[in-house]
Specification:
alpha/beta, about 500 residues, single chain, nine-stranded mixed β-sheet, 21 strands, about 30% helix, globular
Length: about 500
């Protein structure tokens, strides 16, 4: 029981806390986000002590493993980690090996994490409802539990606060994730969650989700800022103390940001966004924050009725069937008018994106501009540049510009391909076969350089392109099988593209 409580005021937007109420948050400047809450304090007991005070109340798990049957190497590491916090030592003497990472079973997931899960780390997976977060983590739990069974290490613990055990079992059966070494518990109480992790000492713990777990001794509704911060802090404590990696699911608000205080993202070690359109099967996993790896990596996945699968080579996903056929060795040289391919960067990976444009006569006083995957303001600017410097008048036309498979062509390097697609659709003439365009357009009609163009060109050559119309290069690049044509303005670009 709580012996006393302290009154605080907390901003639900940025996590600022203070002893005085403000109508406007002094930290982030948002209005009406500072709310009153009382944080209970337990005398003489830390959160970690409370988490380990009980070792017998664990009936929600499907099976209990005795400590003698579990490998104690992880516990020895945990004790040594605790001892290291009481004294300082030279950083050169600290042991840190990437071989300790736990593989998730998905090479794309491991790529985003920097090589796998680090023991003792807490990773937050956030995404829209129904995007596939639980499916991804349940499939990951099945793979890690299978490896744990073969190596005789502790099992995997999956804790669900959103669904019943029967509902989780139905999904696990559908995606073939049923395993004796995968322990399942359903609870919404924080103390029970901590007790389960302390008792089973799993190889991996998954909590689905942070907004459905609540602490009894803390005021506030389940999913509120106070509760979410308390749950995250407790899980981080138990992860660091026991050297157990924890995957934590986080909900998002209607504007796409992670629900709860911003301190949640600061507390955890890694934050990953699971993105995608629910109307398509493509899913993208991005690392927004990563203390143990790069933050510019992206993993590609494909959702199906049987679960989720990784896509190691997503190059063909963002190209139409006609464009894919034209890449083959025996394909015809014809392409459709109104299309042009460019290459964008997603982390260290270069991906092709096909831009499609349709130009029609307008029957409205104000011509229509419809876009999908392209910034509408950027389209308006490029239309003006094309009229002023390219002598192609589309101001009175209806313009429709789209990408394939929900790809996003919002990088400035896509400007030249958008201009080429518009000019091709207006003239009814196709771009030169097996030709891509990479470059940024300025308001003066100049084609500006883009960063890291060499990996884009190498990817273009790898998937079968023969010519690349690009911005002026800072240094000469020689790629076998690919003719590189440098252009300085929009008229030179249209001429090089055969328009």
């Amino acid at each position: 029981m709580a012996s006393k409580s302290t009154l605080h005021y907390l901003c639900s937007e940025c996590g600022w806390s203070g002893s005085k109420w403000y109508g406007r948050c002094p930290e982030c400047g948002e209005w009406g986000t500072v709310n009153e809450f009382r944080e209970a304090r337990v005398s003489g007991l830390s959160r970690t002590t409370r988490a380990s005070r009980t070792t017998a109340m664990h009936t929600t798990a499907s099976r209990t493993y005795s400590p003698d049957s579990i490998d104690t190497s992880n516990r020895n590491i945990a004790h040594s980690a605790l001892d290291s916090t009481t004294s300082a030592q030279p950083i050169s003497e600290i042991q840190a090996d990437d071989a300790m990472r736990i593989h998730t079973g998905f090479s794309e997931f491991d790529r985003v994490l920097g090589g796998g899960l680090v023991p003792g780390s807490v990773t937050l997976i956030a995404g829209e409802p129904g995007i596939g977060k639980s499916t991804l983590l349940l499939k990951t739990a099945a793979y890690v539990s299978k490896q744990s069974k073969e190596s005789n290490t502790p099992p995997v613990l999956y804790i669900s606060g959103e669904e019943s055990a029967a509902q989780v079992k139905l999904r696990a059966s559908r995606i073939n994730a049923v395993n004796d070494y995968l322990l399942l518990a359903t609870t919404g109480d924080l103390d029970t969650v901590l007790d389960l992790i302390e008792t089973h000492h799993p190889t991996l713990a998954i909590v689905d989700s942070a907004q459905t777990i609540s602490a009894q001794e803390v005021d506030g509704i389940t999913g509120g800022s106070t509760q979410v911060r308390e749950v995250a802090s407790a899980l981080i404590d138990v992860a660091k103390t026991n050297n157990i990696p924890i995957l934590l699911v986080g909900h998002v608000t209607k504007d796409g940001s992670i629900a709860g205080p911003r301190t949640l993202e600061h507390l955890v070690d890694t934050v990953c966004q699971f993105e995608g359109d629910t109307q398509t099967a493509l899913r993208m996993l991005r690392a927004v924050k990563n203390r143990f790896g790069p933050t510019d990596e992206v993993g590609c996945f494909d959702m199906s009725g049987e679960g989720i699968e990784e896509v190691p080579d997503p190059s063909g996903l963002f190209l139409s069937s006609t464009e894919n056929d034209n890449q083959g060795k025996n394909a015809q040289d014809g392409t459709n008018d109104g299309t042009c391919v460019t290459f964008t960067l997603e982390g260290h990976r270069s991906l092709p994106i096909e831009i499609q444009a349709l130009v029609t006569q307008s029957a409205l006083p104000t011509p229509r501009r419809a876009v999908s995957g392209v910034d509408s303001n950027r389209l308006a600017m490029l239309t003006a540049v094309l009229y002023r410097h390219g002598r192609v008048n589309l101001l009175a036309k209806d313009l429709y510009v789209s990408t394939i498979a929900g790809a996003l062509a919002k990088e400035p390097s896509c400007d030249l391909a958008i201009v080429a697609a518009l000019a091709s659709a207006a003239a009814g003439k196709a771009v030169t076969p097996k030709t891509c365009a990479i470059g940024e357009m300025s308001l003066t009609g100049q084609v500006r350089p883009v960063p890291r163009i060499e990996p884009r060109l190498r990817e273009a050559a790898r998937i079968g392109y023969k010519r690349a119309v690009v911005c002026p290069l800072r240094k000469k690049i020689n790629i076998p099988g690919l003719q590189i044509v440098e252009v300085r303005n929009v008229r030179d670009a249209l001429q090089a593209l055969g328009l």
